[in-house]
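> forwarded from #structure-qc
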């Protein structure tokens, strides 16, 4: 089969069983390897859906400019779609992200504006505020806002959920995913629970994020928020894409445990994944007592390890952070 363009290669990613790193976990644990998407991350799915829906709604017009605040992966997906469909891209990102991510976006022809991480979301310097301002100032542009744009979770309801259901022949018992915008867990989790309400949906959060506390209490507790090293998961805002009713439980994982697990996945399983994948697998180990021999856990893997070669796969960086 010949694909007409790169966008047609998004999705239909493989499930791969983990073996060594989950030896102490009862049941079967598999990863949904979203690294095989053309942009090497799960975010290709929602980026394409946001573009299709924005075109249909008339927000995105020929020759228009896509504006987005992105830690890198959504930007990559949007850049793929923009290249094929003829749009320009301007991305705002935060300075804590791996520099590789900025270089990749620039390589795809996008303009990248790096904003400070350690400011509140409503600060005019934050990457959310700068994107909003740019959208107002740039003619024929549209700010996608992946946090509140529900095309995000729709992509996973339409594609990721059905793929997992079919690939496991309906035998999945637990779905586990890192939570950032919440698109992955909410869309996939909703589809899976509609097929079988007994499926448990577990979200992985980080220390320094307000999400777990909000899930458990409904309180947005500012004291939960501080800067952390893990990339891609945890939030200092409550995105509209998170459907908290779909999530059964949220578990926090430390920066160190996520990083160390990434290196184990590479060396023990031959799977070189991004930071949040290590957090997700480490989080599963923390929850293993809730599983039994019949459990079939599917873990969403958000991105590829190549984006972190200067960080978690670099010994000096690991030592500097006291992770080794
Ligand atoms: C590396 C990585 N992990 C996890 C996530 C969280 O996924 P979601 O935004 O669908 O909750 C993201 C999203 O930006 C990501 O880039």
């Amino acid at each position: 089969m010949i694909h007409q363009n790169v966008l047609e290669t998004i999705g239909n990613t493989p499930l791969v069983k983990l073996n060594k790193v989950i030896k102490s976990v009862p049941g079967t644990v598999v990863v949904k390897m979203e690294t095989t998407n053309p942009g090497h991350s799960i975010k290709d799915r929602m980026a394409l859906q946001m573009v299709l829906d924005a075109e249909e709604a008339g927000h995105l017009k020929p020759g228009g400019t896509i504006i987005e605040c992105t830690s890198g992966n959504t930007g990559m997906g949007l850049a793929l779609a923009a290249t094929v469909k003829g749009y320009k891209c301007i991305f705002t990102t935060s300075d804590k992200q791996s520099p590789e991510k900025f270089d990749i976006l620039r390589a795809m022809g996008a303009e990248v504006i790096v904003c400070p991480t350690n400011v509140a979301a409503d600060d005019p310097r934050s990457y959310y505020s700068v994107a909003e301002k740019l959208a107002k100032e740039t003619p024929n542009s549209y700010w996608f806002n992946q946090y509140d744009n529900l095309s995000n979770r729709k992509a996973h309801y339409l594609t990721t959920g059905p793929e997992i259901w079919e690939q496991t022949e309906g035998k999945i018992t637990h779905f586990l995913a890192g939570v950032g915008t919440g698109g992955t867990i909410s869309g996939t989790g909703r589809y899976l629970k509609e097929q079988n309400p007994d499926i448990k949906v577990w979200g992985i959060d980080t220390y320094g994020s307000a999400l777990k506390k909000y899930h458990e209490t409904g309180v947005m507790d500012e004291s939960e928020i501080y800067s952390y090293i893990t990339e891609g998961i945890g939030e200092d805002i409550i995105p509209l894409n998170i459907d908290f009713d779909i999530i059964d439980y949220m578990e926090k994982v430390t920066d160190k445990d996520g990083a160390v697990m990434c290196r184990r996945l590479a060396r023990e399983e031959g799977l070189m994944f991004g930071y949040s994948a290590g957090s997700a697998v480490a989080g599963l180990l923390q929850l293993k007592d809730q599983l039994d021999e019949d459990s079939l856990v599917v873990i969403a893997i958000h991105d590829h390890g190549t984006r972190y070669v200067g960080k978690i796969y670099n010994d000096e960086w690991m030592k500097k952070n006291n992770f080794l």
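QC bot note: The CA atoms of residues 46 and 280 lie 20 Å apart. The two ends are 46 Å apart (CA to CA).
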